[in-house]
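About this split. The held-out portion is used to measure sequence recovery: a designer receives only the structure tokens and must propose an amino acid at every position. Recovery is the fraction of positions where the proposal matches the reference. Here is one held-out target exactly as it appears in the evaluation file.
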């Protein structure tokens, strides 16, 4: 017998931006398929017409593309199991529901909205009382001939229990008395989310269903549908919750109050897509060894369902920043320049700058690309500063020796025949040796005068090299004037 091809699907609703939790689900769907040589399918679930957001479908495509999660089948690439947009499949659901009616497994419910609302208010738990479940056929025919609107409900078992096995959480049992006769088709003819989901997954040959653990309790409803049709039940993989930690250390479900939670929000915060994906892969999954940095191709090889945890994971922005810093360090200078360019433009506009030199001083220090403007702003304009900045214990500088050192350094630098990093380095190091000073005693006043701030990417030599002779001289003279 031929081995079954693993088929997973990511089925987002185009109702907004992609949250970290949705993205992790998509990533795990992708990795479950790819780690087993299977197919990753994209299906757009747009039957909730009231909540659709314009442009959200393009947003889904762009997010998956940026994240590197290439789907094998979908609305844009086609495949043998289309259409891949739920609203385009709407005519296929009703016949399945009518099949269940004919087999005595579902029924038409003619209860009015008012009756259902009254029930909701009067009964404990607000459940449906199965009023239409056993209507006589003559009554059903009369209501149909009068054109009374109806929904189609599934006949759920009222006794016993339903048990299913989840690949992460193990065996789970739910008492059938807790399950309501779920609606399959709404009065507008559209299927409910649960019903469409099961029909689509079966007709698309989906073998593994990956979703958040908040859906654990509704899984028996799905299984009772599979059983009603006599279909094979897929493998369920429910993922642990993603939590956020607030400033007081309290942990709750990740939300905007913890920080950026959308994929694009994180990119706007200066994180690289590859770093986000790498970090999210480890939110709830543990590799067999201690490796932390993974390319997507490495994740495809290393991923194993047995490594998924039951315990909630805490989204740690500091840890994400560490990952991001590692990815930034691993870039080539050209890759870094491309990624940093929008941030350079915030500081320098379209002015041509020595970008390769910026890469040399920034790459080791940046953990978020958004830090770049603040790190470089002094290159565009010397900030206002007080002469007290020249005082530094470690460098042994004070208000007496700083102006003397700065004056001498200015004169020596002005006399340099060529303006290169090596020439500047030799000039200042030689001066320290000749005067019997620590290197820092020479470098500190020069750097303060050149940058106007105590914390800079790169030291005095790199800063002077980037500023050029003319601007360096102007700034050192401004520094001297403060004394």
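Reference sequence for scoring:
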């Amino acid at each position: 017998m031929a081995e079954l091809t693993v088929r997973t699907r990511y089925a987002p609703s185009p109702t907004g931006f992609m949250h970290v939790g949705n993205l992790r689900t998509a990533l795990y769907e992708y990795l479950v398929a790819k780690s087993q040589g299977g197919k990753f399918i994209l299906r757009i679930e747009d039957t909730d017409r009231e909540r659709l957001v314009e442009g959200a479908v393009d947003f889904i495509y762009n997010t998956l593309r940026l994240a590197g999660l290439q789907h094998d089948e979908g609305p844009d690439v086609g495949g043998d199991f289309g259409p891949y947009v739920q609203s385009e499949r709407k005519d296929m659901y009703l016949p399945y529901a009518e099949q269940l009616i004919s087999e005595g497994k579902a029924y038409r419910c003619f209860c009015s909205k008012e009756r259902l609302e009254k029930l909701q208010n009067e009964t404990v738990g607000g459940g449906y009382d199965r009023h239409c479940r056993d209507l006589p056929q003559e009554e059903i025919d009369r209501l149909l001939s009068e054109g009374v609107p109806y929904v189609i409900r599934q006949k759920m078992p009222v006794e016993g229990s339903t048990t299913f096995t989840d690949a992460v959480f193990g065996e789970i049992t739910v008492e059938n008395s807790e399950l309501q006769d779920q609606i399959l088709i709404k009065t507008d003819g559209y299927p409910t989310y649960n019903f469409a989901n099961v029909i689509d997954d079966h007709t698309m040959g989906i073998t593994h269903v990956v979703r958040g653990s908040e859906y654990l309790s509704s899984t028996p409803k799905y299984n009772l549908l599979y059983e009603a049709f006599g279909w094979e039940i897929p493998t369920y993989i429910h993922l642990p919750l993603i939590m956020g930690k607030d400033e007081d250390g309290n942990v709750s479900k990740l939300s905007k109050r913890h920080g950026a939670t959308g994929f694009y929000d994180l990119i706007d915060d200066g994180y690289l897509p590859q770093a986000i994906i790498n970090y999210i892969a480890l939110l709830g999954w543990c590799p067999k060894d201690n490796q932390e940095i993974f390319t997507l191709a490495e994740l495809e090889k290393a991923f194993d369902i047995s490594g998924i945890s039951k315990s909630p994971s805490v989204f740690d922005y500091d840890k994400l920043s560490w990952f991001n810093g590692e990815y930034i360090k691993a870039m080539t200078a050209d890759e870094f320049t491309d990624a940093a360019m929008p941030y350079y433009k915030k500081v320098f506009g379209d002015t041509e700058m020595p970008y390769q030199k910026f890469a040399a001083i920034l790459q080791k220090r940046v953990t978020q690309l958004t830090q770049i403007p603040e790190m470089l702003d002094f290159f565009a304009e010397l900030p206002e500063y007080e002469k007290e900045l020249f005082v530094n214990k470690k460098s042994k500088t004070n208000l007496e020796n700083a102006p003397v050192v700065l004056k001498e350094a200015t004169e020596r630098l002005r006399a340099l025949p060529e303006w290169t990093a090596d020439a500047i380095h030799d000039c200042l190091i030689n001066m320290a040796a000749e005067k019997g000073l620590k290197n820092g005693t020479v470098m500190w006043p020069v750097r303060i005068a050149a940058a106007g701030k105590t914390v800079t990417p790169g030291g005095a030599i790199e800063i002077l090299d980037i500023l050029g002779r003319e601007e360096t001289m102007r700034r050192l003279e401004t520094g001297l004037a403060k004394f």
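Annotator remark: The chain has 19 helices and twelve strands.
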